Amino acid sequence: MAGILTVNEGTHHLTLTASVLFHEEKNIEKLLNIMESFTNPFTEESKNLFNLVTKVLVPEKGQEDLVGESNIGQKLFAKFLRDRIQSGRINLWSTMK
Questions:
Q1: CB of 51 within 8 A of CB of 58?
Q2: C-alpha closest to that of 86 among 95, 96, 77
Q3: Which residues contact 80 (CB under 8 A, 6 or more apart)?
Q4: pTM, whole model, 2 decimals?
Q5: Rounded CA gap, 9 and 44, in Å?
Q6: pLDDT digits (tens, 9 = 90+) for 32-74
Q7: Residue 60: which domain range?
Q8: What is the pLDDT of residues 11-36, one digit of tens each?
């Protein structure tokens, strides 16, 4: 009947079987093994930047961009202010490159 649980339905979850639990435990174990194989970024002595998961080195240009991100952003912001706000050479609403 609608809204009434039988004894079996109330005490046993349909998807919680021994087979499902076994596969979930195996997947958790695999995930933990993968996470343990990750490199701890705080133990590396290298000056090079690398992808934490794949351990592939970041190209030189990418390293320069990541390390100098703050300076690059400040320069672009100053140029935006100079061109669009202070001098009015470029319309404020024009698309940005």
A1: yes
A2: 77
A3: 96
A4: 0.44
A5: 54
A6: 988 887 767 667 677 788 887 787 888 999 888 888 999 999 9
A7: 7-86
A8: 666 677 888 889 999 999 999 988 88
